[in-house]
Amino acid sequence: CVPQVQPRVEELSELYRELSQHPGLSTACLGPDLTTQYGGKYCSLYTEWSQRDLARAENIKFCRQYLIFHDGASIVYSGPAGTCSELKDELLSRESPSGTLKAVLRKVPGKGKEKEKQFLEVWDQNRKVKSIDLTALDKHGSVYDDDQFGCLAWSHSETHLLYVAEKKRPKAESFFESKAPELGTSDEDTEHPKKEDAPVKVESSHSGPGGGWLCGCEADQAVLQGEKFVYHEDWGETLSTRSVPVLCVLDIEGNSISVLEGIPEHLSPGQAFWSPEDTGVVFVGWWHEPFRLGLRHCTNRRSALFYVDLTGGRCELLSEDTKAVWSPRLSPDGCRIVYLENNVLGPHQQCSRLRMYDWYTRHTSTVLEAVPRQARGAFPGIYCGALPGMCWAADSRRILLDTAQRSQQDVFVVDTATGTTTSLTADAPQGSWSVLTIDRDLLVARFSTPSCPPMLKVAVLPAAGHEAQTKWICLQDSPPVPGITWGIRTLQPPPEQEHPQHGGLDFDAILMRPSEGPTAQKPPLVVMPHGGPHSVFTAGWMLYPAALCRMGFAVLLVNYRGSLGFGQDNVASLPGNVGTQDVRDVQLCVERVLQEETLDASQVALVGGSHGGFLACHLIGQFPDTYRACVVRNPVVNIASMVATTDIPDWCLTETGLPYKPDALPDPAQWTEMLHKSPIRYVDQVRAPVLLMLGEDDRRVPPKQGLEYYRALKARGLPTRLLWYPGNNHALAGVEAEADGFMNMALWLLKHLQC
Known about the structure:
The protein has 755 residues and is of the alpha+beta class. The protein contains 12 helices and 42 strands.
């Protein structure tokens, strides 16, 4: 029977409070090598972490530093240096190449009715040496601090800083807007207006770091009448304030800021850095014609690598202009640029190619092709949102990256000359590994498992040919959460469910079980398919599954066919088969686990978000006898009604198996096919109670999708509840929304599974 509600609420809130306090590790930066009086070498390691603060209802950032003593071949000693401290209002930060300077982009709350301001600061080892009010200068709009466009890059000479900001938009008025005449203005004031001294010059051109001319645009622009309500496109989910990015340069010594000219108007620039010798800027340019599509988590948008020359403003194409590219990284010797490449359109996430551009020969080569099938023990292919910010080994030949390898994530070293790959974590504990940085062959990584929160690991990269001997040292431990066991199992679809062109594919699932408590022997089961659909659960720390397991639930995380980490054929098998292949894979996995594990088959629930919510709604409609409760977060419910409102209309057609063209409208047969593959089709068969959680600001799966399902369930008299989260987008990642979502999910499952 269900215990009294209040004691259960207090117990759950305390559990969530305990587990949500585990911090996440986001950034690492190695300082320059120093020499002790005895000849030994050591360096500092600066790290940034994030943590949920439930009392303040916000994510806080804090930093912690460590010391690493090494002899170039191994780490002699490592340990923390002092305690951690909170970072306030830092948006971006970057150390200079020598490690003697640091640039910080900081937001400063406005006083009274003033708007929030942005300051660009430069610090040396003892003090702040520059503080520039970018908002007051009004040279451009807000500086981008996202990881899609944003950058904060030092020139090699450490005299200039490069960043991305929103282009200054001319002031616009309506046709009937007018200013009141200014009273009390003398002729003297009119003829000789006073000017305030500005600490930083705003120039239209000035000498660049390479001795050439760096061009900019005029700061003052006329008021545009009748343009007040003109629509301005943006880049969609999480990028709604990003419309027209521009590259900007701060001349630290000359105290001037300029906006670069020469970039074609049909491109949106980002991910920029200085070219060798500081003669220009290399950047990724995204096409935004005929209109902008959502860019977040979409590595299939047409883009290319460009170089703009500061000596004359000439813009040069460095890569093919018919692909999608991102994450360019310059080698330490300044000779090569590696970057990731996908095909345009198609699945939003794919198995990527690793390409390399030689700066001096102007030759582009393919280091690694996409992998059609992931063979056990072999390199799985590249499935990552970005390369590490610093990924090159000291030899300027090898690079480090992390990628999904089926249901775990591993670190690999790639020889760019031969294309050979070696795992650096093959003999390390199984779980999820991520590269944070590598500098002078000192390697810093993050490691976690479903039962162990993130910990900090360091190693020295061995010489070429000996990488498999990498020895990891734990610098910041995180004790395992008690009461959780987990394992990975592989499943093969039955012959009648094989893909006709991509036969022989298998898939994985991660099963977490409670190892203690009253339900440990035969726990109820919560099934969680991932979103995407071209995404993957890797065996790392996840708050919701860990908390559910501690509550006494077994949790099944299903990587159905179409997931990343299993080869490109696996990805390609799903478009055109959503609502059938992925649904059957999840149901097969559930039935197999219930047969082979001691679980309570009468108490099974579904939890899913986005495409995971799409699958959950399909499953409770197609297999109503299996599931007793359902919780969905921003679910895709009706592809046909979503296509006209989402920031990714191409997703709707691609995953339905239809071609996407920006200038083409779906015909009646295509509308029918989209509806046919949608879970709303099966709503008459649903019997499980459904809890919906919707983000008011979701641009990816607009909340009207969830509302459509909610009304359909209500009209049929089914138990349903809807939670509406203002100020939250698709991820529902706001601290308050995330905490409230967990509590409501937990209570809903306990109530309807009668635990």
